[in-house]
Amino acid sequence: MLDDLDRRLLRHWQADATLSPAELAATVGVTPAKVSRRIARLQDTGVIEGIGAVIDWSALGYTVEVSLRITLDKTQAGSFDGFITAARAVPEVTEIQTFLGSVDVRLNIIARDVAHYQQIYRERILTLPHISDIEALMQIARIKDGEALPL
Which of 38, 43, 64, 142 lies 20 to 30 Å from 122, alpha-carbon distance? Predict the structure, then answer.
């Protein structure tokens, strides 16, 4: 699916998404037109999903990050979809993951401080439908952060 040129382009672009096609071309040794065509193909095939800004939430005053492991009450039809729809509407939820096993969903929550987190938890999380159990894990440190693949 990916050839050597695709891998080199992705490797360099992962490291610095601000590189222009001309800069990428110089780095990998091909023409800017070829780089543009390859990037367009990688976007069209879904390999590259998007290009965006990475925001440091702590620089904006969000200093608390909590991971909630949630088990849902699945005895009611539509409970999973209802929960996911409601969780998506909570602005402080930055990530939603689903699992097989005893934990059904993991929500990542950001807050300005512990008091703000408590408010979010009481007013927005505990009001989400179909929750059977919640386990909260407060993040102490981020050791590794990144989505770069070893290409």
Answer: 142
Contact between 151 and 15 under an 8 Å Cβ cutoff? The reply is: no
DSSP E strands: which ranges in the chain?
Answer: 64-72, 93-98, 105-111, 131-138
DSSP character at residue 118:
H
**CA 51 – CA 128 distance, rounded (Å):** 31
CA dihedral over 150, 142, 46, 9, signed as positive or negative? negative
Q: List the structure tokens of 96.
A: 């939603």
State the pLDDT at residue 150. Answer: 80
Residue 114 CA, distance from chain mean position:
22
Do the beta carbons of residue 69 and residue 95 sit within 8 Å? no
Long-range contacts from 133-136, C-beta under 8 angstroms, 24+ separation: 133/70, 133/71, 134/68, 134/69, 134/70, 134/71, 135/68, 135/69, 135/70, 135/103, 136/66, 136/67, 136/68, 136/69
pTM of the model: 0.78
pLDDT digits (tens, 9 = 90+) for 19-41: 999 999 999 999 999 999 999 99
pLDDT for the residue 53: 83
